[in-house]
Predict the 3D structure of the following.
Amino acid sequence: LNEYAEESKEMQSMTKEEYLASLRRRSSGFSRGVSRYRGVA
């Protein structure tokens, strides 16, 4: 639930498409391009 709260707080600052794209980037290209989310997971 806490993790979900973080996700939704993040979602408020971007559109739904950007959010979904960032989720896809995080899950598929985690070892390659994680400039914005470095150190988060």
Observations:
- Residues 2 and 36 are 20 Å apart (CA to CA).
- The mean pLDDT is 68.
